[in-house]
Design a protein that fits this description.
CATH architecture: Alpha-Beta Barrel
Number of helices: 13
Structural class: alpha/beta
Keywords: Carbohydrate metabolism, Hydrolase, Magnesium, Metal-binding
Distance between the termini: 18 Å
CATH class: Alpha Beta
Strand content: 5-15%
Radius of gyration: 18 Å
Largest sheet: 7 strands, parallel
Protein name: Polysaccharide deacetylase family protein
InterPro entries: Glyco_hydro/deAcase_b/a-brl (IPR011330), YdjC-like (IPR006879)
Oligomer: single chain
Pfam families: YdjC
Cofactor: Mg(2+)
Length: 290
């Protein structure tokens, strides 16, 4: 880890941070907010959900704004009550990944129970290939609901897809532990991981508020690599419809994310705590070398 820090021009005591926006492409409210967070805020990384209806619109933005860090948010689940989507491949080519309606399963446990790793690989490759066909130049791969960490076999598929396209993948022992996946044992010493991960929690949202959580996160960043995962969107009729009966990471939650990471106060905290912002683009030139 220290060697990687040195290659990037940092010291072991530096606090490095990626502020990453998940779920671009989910819907228009998500896209509008992600663009604002990149252009007017301090968000410096985002990733696109290729199977979603608004993914192409966000891909157009990515092509026109190559300076912004852009990854592919590999998607194998769809957690929303009425807003549904499925694989980019025909459902009959990846039947283990879909329900009777051809939609992704809403929960990680259902996906884990049913998914065939070979079909996972076919679908993930198809998602990357579609993104590339749209002109996206991905800086990294990450995973919606971190489903690529569900089993030893799926983690290996994730590695293989990253290696195939020579794109770094986001892995985290902390997230595997937080989601109680019991798969940390399958990470390798050669895997690059970011184990200081901060993402909003329900107890904060209904308690002191997400702004208080993010204040705490910035104050408590550790030396080395850190990442804050957010989900910016506008709390409008569209996002409220997507997130109906889903307050956790719902419309109001996502508006809080947008507001916090576009505020001047937050920019000042980054300076106050001597936090150095980095991106996956910084890492890509070093990681995943054959």
């Amino acid at each position: 880890m220290h060697n990687l820090l040195e290659k990037l021009g940092y010291t072991p005591t530096d606090k490095l941070l990626i502020i990453h926006a998940d779920d671009a492409g989910l819907c228009y409210a998500e896209n509008r907010a992600t663009k604002k967070a990149l252009k007017e805020g301090i968000v410096n990384s985002y990733s696109i959900m290729v199977p979603c209806p608004w993914a192409y619109e966000m891909a157009t933005f990515a092509k026109e704004n190559p300076a912004f860090d852009c990854g592919i948010h590999l998607t194998l689940t769809c957690e929303w009550k009425h807003y549904k989507f499925g694989p980019v491949l025909p459902a009959n080519e990846v039947p283990s990944l879909v329900d009777g309606n051809g939609h992704f399963y809403p929960k990680r446990a259902m996906m884990k129970e049913n998914a065939n790793p070979e079909e996972v690989k076919k679908e993930l490759i198809a998602q990357v290939e579609r993104a590339l066909s749209w002109g996206i130049q991905p800086t990294h791969l990450d995973s919606h609901m971190f489903t690529t960490g569900l089993t030893k076999g799926i983690i290996q598929v994730y590695r293989e897809v990253g290696k195939l396209f020579k794109i770094p993948i986001f892995l985290s022992r902390q997230l595997l532990n937080d989601f109680k996946m019991d798969t940390e044992q399958y990470l390798r010493e050669t895997d690059f991981t970011i184990d200081n991960v901060f993402t909003g929690e329900w107890k904060w949202f209904e308690g002191e508020g997400l702004a208080a959580y993010y204040d705490w996160s910035l104050k408590n960043l550790k030396e080395g690599f850190n990442i804050i995962l957010i989900h910016p969107a506008y709390d409008d009729a569209e996002m409220q419809g997507v997130a109906i009966d889903h307050p956790n990471f719902g419309a109001a939650w996502r508006q809080c994310d947008l507001d916090y990471f576009t505020s001047n106060r937050t920019k000042n905290l980054i300076e106050k705590y001597n936090i150095k912002l980095i991106t996956w683009s910084n890492l890509k030139a070093i990681l995943h070398k054959d």
